Amino acid sequence: MASGDVLPRFFSVFLSQYSSDSFLIPSSYYEHLPRRLPKNAILMGTGGKIWKVAMKSQRGQVYFEEGWANFVADNELKDGEFLTFVFDGYNRYEVSIYGHGGCKETRAAIEVEDISDDETESDNSGESFVSVTHV
Fold first, then answer.
1. Over 70: is that where the pLDDT of 135 sits?
2. What is the predicted pLDDT for the residue at 2?
3. What is d(CA 10, CA 86) in angstroms, rounded to the nearest whole number?
4. What is the mean pLDDT of residues 5-34?
5. In the 8-state DSSP scheme, what is residue 6?
6. Percent of the residues in the chain that have a pLDDT greater than 90, as a whole number
7. Per the CB 3.0–4.6 Å rule, which of 14, 29, 81, 110 could disulfide with 10?
8. DSSP 75
9. Cα(17)–Cα(14) distance, rounded to whole angstroms?
10. How far apart are CA 41 and CA 52, in angstroms?
11. In sequence order, what are the residues at sequence separation of 6 or more whose Cβ sits closer than 8 angstroms to the Cβ of residue 21?
12. Cα 68 to Cα 51: distance, rounded to the nearest angstrom
């Protein structure tokens, strides 16, 4: 995409009856893209977590398939929630979830775990390193 172009985007309302296992991408969206969609895409949620999903074309329509159910479960999507998708032009979609209250929500946040001192060694600079034992 040329610099200055607006990133392609679309929205959808989540309905579990139709979108729990796969997700239909609106044809009006992908028909106007300057190039073909990738076979695999990365979905990035507002919590920083990412999901790899397969994109499948079937009967002239494109779906997020394998991996989509994990995205739904990890984000605890509920009927009637509003999703927005912003495509980077290559293979990544930034996905925002708007709950029933109409506000953007952070879900499936990446959890950062501190490494305890007994699992690391420190040098004089205060940086921590993982111990490696050579056999």
1. no
2. 47
3. 7
4. 88
5. P
6. 53
7. 29
8. T
9. 9
10. 6
11. 68, 69
12. 8
> What distance in Å separates the CA atoms of residue 74 and residue 80, rounded to the nearest whole number?
17
Residue with tokens 């991996």: 67
Looking up tokens 């990446």, which residue turns up?
A: 110
Q: How far apart are CA 54 and CA 99, in angstroms?
A: 26
Helix (H/G/I), strand (E/B), else coil: 77: coil
Both tokens assigned to 107 = 């879900």
Q: Which residue has the tokens 């993982």?
A: 130
Look up residue 133 and give its two tokens: 């034992």
The third-level CATH classification (topology) of the domain covering 9-109 is At1g16640 B3 domain (2.40.330)
More confident residue, 73 or 7: 73
Task: Give the count of beta carbons closer than 10 Å to the beta carbon of residue 98.
Answer: 16
